[in-house]
Write a structure and sequence with these properties.
Blueprint (H helix, E strand, L loop, with lengths): L2 E5 L9 H9 L5 E5 L14 H9 L5 E4 L9 H13 L3 E4 L21 H34 L12 H12 L4 H8 L3 H7 L6 H6 L9 E6 H8 L5 H8 L2 E5 L2 E8 L1 H10 L13 H15 L7
Parallel strand pairs: 1-2, 1-3, 3-4
Antiparallel strand pairs: 5-7, 6-7
Helix pairs in contact: 3-4, 6-7, 11-12
Length: 308
């Protein structure tokens, strides 16, 4: 009976460090590892992914497929049911070691009919639908935010450099005593762009005073499990996804927290991503999720200086 481990990351900027940790903690004996090429999309049906196809070809009846979290293998409701059908056909067991599905035997079948138990199918469909709803809401909120920003004249993305036609005005204003921060606001560019435009005018002492703030140092915060589960189903920036992937799971009773080390900006970004857990129009908040989000918010808020 072989133990077959499946791993996948969504971008080539992510690592399998967190998956490795979860699977190592599971104590899997003599694992045979199948790892997709970095950047293999979750939108590609699992049965069409090269390495999962190799796993199924290699597997023999009685073998067990191990994954760290369900979303490493599947996202959508139909994908889950399709995979369970194949695993049942090939008489393979499935073990999920973390996340919402970890306490369930998803391969349980009725002893007489051989069909997937109705309770298992209900839980699978409910959890998968909840995940899809969360992703849809996140996309809608992002789209609405971009539309609102666009209506105010903001196009998003990195602020541009100082336009050539404005460079002389910027330099004159700087020589007259206008601060770099004020010029950046006036011209809607970054402070770095202003410094570039006036680089030859910056004496040593001014350069030191206006220099870029020291890089933020990573801090470790416990992300409640319900928040972590939600974030894993959400589109994240590479740095945010990497922070989650590298987090350490800490069991707490029947739940868990994810111990994440990241710079404060990444924690604030993750907090912003889980705003829908407070409830949105048409989708009331789940009290436990809302409470978990606010616990994380309190921890993140403690990182933000309140003043000199």
């Amino acid at each position: 009976m072989a133990n077959l481990v499946y791993k996948r990351v969504s971008t080539d900027q992510q690592s399998t460090a967190r998956q490795d940790l979860v699977l190592d903690e599971a104590g899997i004996e003599d694992p045979v590892v199948f790892e997709e090429e970095p950047g293999t999309s979750s939108r590609l049906h699992p049965l069409q992914r090269p390495k999962f196809g190799e796993l199924l070809t290699y597997a023999r009846p009685g073998d067990t497929v191990h994954i760290s979290e369900m979303f490493r293998l599947v996202r959508g409701n139909q994908h889950i049911l399709d995979v369970l059908d194949v695993l049942h056909r090939d008489r393979l067991a499935l073990r999920i070691h973390d996340g919402a599905f970890s306490a369930m035997d998803l391969t349980a079948r009725h002893p007489r009919t051989g069909e997937l138990l109705s309770t298992v199918k209900f839980m699978v469909q409910t959890l998968a639908a909840a995940g899809e709803l969360q992703r849809d809401l996140q996309r809608e909120l992002t789209y609405d935010g971009l539309r609102a920003a666009g209506a105010k004249g903001s196009k998003g993305g990195r602020r541009p450099a100082v336009a050539a036609a404005q460079t002389a005005d910027v330099r004159t204003a700087y020589l007259e005593g206008r601060s770099i921060a004020a010029l950046a606001r006036d011209h809607r560019v970054s402070r770095g762009a202003i410094r570039t435009a006036v680089a030859d005018l910056l004496p040593d002492h001014a350069a030191a005073e206006e220099s870029t703030p020291a890089p933020e140092l990573p801090v470790t915060l416990d992300v409640p499990g319900k928040v972590a589960d939600y974030l894993r189903t959400t589109e994240l920036e590479p740095a945010e996804r990497a922070a989650l992937d590298q987090g350490t799971t800490v069991r707490r009773g029947q739940g868990y927290t994810l111990r994440v080390s990241a710079v404060p900006a990444v924690h604030r970004g993750l907090l912003a991503r889980c705003q829908p857990l407070d409830g949105v129009q048409g989708a009331p908040a789940v009290p436990a999720q809302r409470k978990a989000r606010r616990e994380y918010e309190n921890r993140v808020s403690a990182l933000i200086p309140t003043g000199p």
